[in-house]
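Internal tracking record. Fields below are filled automatically when a chain is submitted to the structure queue. Please do not edit lines marked as system-generated. If the sequence contains nonstandard residues, flag them in the REMARKS field before resubmitting.
Queue: standard
Priority: normal
Entity type: single polypeptide chain
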Amino acid sequence: MRRFTIVIAVLFFICIFSFPALAWQVPDTGQTECYDDQGRTINCPESGEHFSGQDGSYLINPPSYTKLDESGNILSDSAESWSMVKDNVTGLIWEKKTNKDDVSNYVDPHDADNVYAWYDSNPQTNGGVAGLYNNGKNTEVFIAELNSAEFGGFDDWRMPSKLELKTIVIYGPHSPGAAINKSFFPNTQYGSHEYYWSKNSSAANARYAWYVYFYDGSDACDSYGEKEYDSRYVRAVRGGS
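SYSTEM-GENERATED OUTPUT FOLLOWS
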């Protein structure tokens, strides 16, 4: 049992921290608890003590966000209305979702209930499989609409990579359905089968693309959906590297 627990822990941290070289900082995971070799919660040990060196002992690049209005102007944290969120650690700017009421509204591309098929017509970036056009209800058209409208004053919105989506996952203690900062990212879909597309195709099979889900954050490393069948949620991003 002890060996099994240690192996699981190692795999968990490899999943979270297997970042390639980045041009921007990686936010802290939010993990604040420490464990012994039986998986029991303990006080985080000091350097040199048994089980020292765990993620919960360190706070590096703590998550920090800024609300932005429809023109990209900075708002206070207490603002009740905003259009975008800047991640102060990575520099990425994220679209805010609206109107989470279980009713899709494709006239409003920011509607939290809209789902899209994965579609990328560019053979240089689609992994060899373009996906499903789905009568225009797809990720490529969604991004094109934001850029055509110059949402927030910008025309360089894009689909996020899996890595970029993982930077806004909270890996520390939280109740299910809260693996993201709800104060800055309201209207996020949290259901146990509600996922957000990334732009990345699976290297093992290009018929699939990776997605991240914010129900508990634990599946962010090993989840992918079928391009020519599944429709999922999308959150646009811009900036960063």
